Amino acid sequence: MLSSLSSTISRLNLFCPKPSIPHSLSSCLKTLKPQPIIPRWSCLHSLSTHSTSRLSTSLKPQFDALVSKDDLVVLGIETSCDDTAAAVVRGNGEILSQVVSSQADLLAKYGGVAPKMAEEAHSQVIDQVVQEALDKANLTARNLSAVAVTIGPGLSLCLRVGVRKARKLAGSFNLPIIGIHHMEAHCLVARLIERELEFPFMALLISGGHNLLILAHDLGHYIQLGTTIDDAIGEAYDKTAKWLGLDMSRSGGPALEELAQEGDAESIKFSTPMKQHRDCNFSYAGLKTQVRLAIGSHNINPEIPISSASSQDRRSRADIAASFQRVAVLHLEERCDRAIEWARKIEPSIKHLVVSGGVASNQYVRARLDHVVKKNNLQLVCPPPKLCTDNGVMVAWTGIEHFCMGRFDPPPPADEHEDYVYDLRPRWPLGEEYAEGRSEARSLRTARIHPSLTSIIQASLQQQ
Ligand code: KG4
Ligand code: ZN
């Protein structure tokens, strides 16, 4: 396993300050040495508290002329799906700027994300979004310590736009670059808003493409307690909203949440997914089918927007929305209950459950999960809605966390060709699966392109 990972590690160039440097990384260190920007690549606070003793002698000189963690200023760029986002964050957690450009028109037109269109939309606004983030922070790229960018998971076409921009900027200004895992960023942004949040903790990450229940042991070290075997909850919200003729311009979730407030959540008895599977995995494909059938039996025409529906029609749609939401979230509640039990067996000291990702901006979701967490004597940490949906702050902050552990790449060449083949990870698991939690209800879509972030980091640590 380790040997099969070594080539991946050298491509990743995640290097950790440790006594001996693996061969695959030494070339990267050589490139680092002559850089005139060495002082900006250092992070006094974290290195001194966590890993100074593990610093290699060949690395040490780079960390002597140190800046403190608080003085780091990192630009985060996020383009993994439909939002083009950038933000500048300081090492002390201060958000200096945050800019998000959403593809409202495209979402409304196509009722979802069309990769090629999304790529074009990202390309059109990326320069402007990044510039605005710098301007709002009253900085130029010269003032940055590093650039962090999402490299996966997500849509390749879209990821490429952000990565190209990040590398161009980092190359021009000789800045280190940090490749970020999108779901780790959703998780770690909780540590920016809740400074007391220490490892280990649990996280439920719920977005358009992912449903993850994880135990976060340490930075970069995650155990996956559960994942979806088909669709993620955000996808189910989006499809249900589309079939109910709702306004899709902000994606389906917010519109469905609003309509559900008018409906009777008990009116339609959708069955809760995966009742018979005593694990922590999720499934939303069956619920989607149930919703579709209900829409058909209530004679709802998705072509008629909700704004033009008769009052009786609107009432039926609201009932479906509320009933869907109740069951979709009940599924989360049941899985979280079990995951807390499992996580406590592994790490009895956990105190927090983080809930993040776009769907975590939903007030009903937050309230129901708060109930679960209180029942289990834990604390809920849920970032504010703007930091739950895709944003650049989470990317910048995760960049800061890794940068302070010495995990970053050297600046790309200033003259890197536009056709350079970037290291993108459209399908990239976050952690290793919890062995005892393996489900018989396995997805056929488990083929991996990349080893998980955790396995890469663990392998690089063991090699040193
Ligand atoms: O994390 P995110 O912004 O992007 C992805 O990584 O996918 O999550 C987007 C998902 C979409 O499916 C969207 O409908 C859902 O989050 N979402 C919501 C709400 N706001 C966004 N779902 C339910 N209620 C909301 N208020
Ligand atoms: Zn996301």
UniProtKB/TrEMBL annotation:
Keywords: Acyltransferase, Metal-binding, Mitochondrion, Transferase, Transit peptide, tRNA processing. GO terms for biological process: tRNA threonylcarbamoyladenosine modification. It is found in: Mitochondrion. Residues 94-397 form the Gcp-like domain. InterPro entries: ATPase_NBD, Gcp-like_dom, KAE1/TsaD, TsaD. It comes from the Eukaryota. Binds 1 divalent metal cation per subunit. GO terms for molecular function: metal ion binding; tRNA N(6)-L-threonylcarbamoyladenine synthase activity. It catalyses: L-threonylcarbamoyladenylate + adenosine(37) in tRNA = N(6)-L-threonylcarbamoyladenosine(37) in tRNA + AMP + H(+). One of its GO terms (cellular component) is mitochondrion. Its cofactor is a divalent metal cation. Belongs to the KAE1 / TsaD family. Homodimer. Required for the formation of a threonylcarbamoyl group on adenosine at position 37 (t(6)A37) in mitochondrial tRNAs that read codons beginning with adenine. Probably involved in the transfer of the threonylcarbamoyl moiety of threonylcarbamoyl-AMP (TC-AMP) to the N6 group of A37. Involved in mitochondrial genome maintenance. PANTHER family: TRNA N6-ADENOSINE THREONYLCARBAMOYLTRANSFERASE, TRNA N6-ADENOSINE THREONYLCARBAMOYLTRANSFERASE, MITOCHONDRIAL. NCBIfam families: gcp_kae1, T6A_TsaD_YgjD. This is Glycoprotease 1. The gene is GCP1.
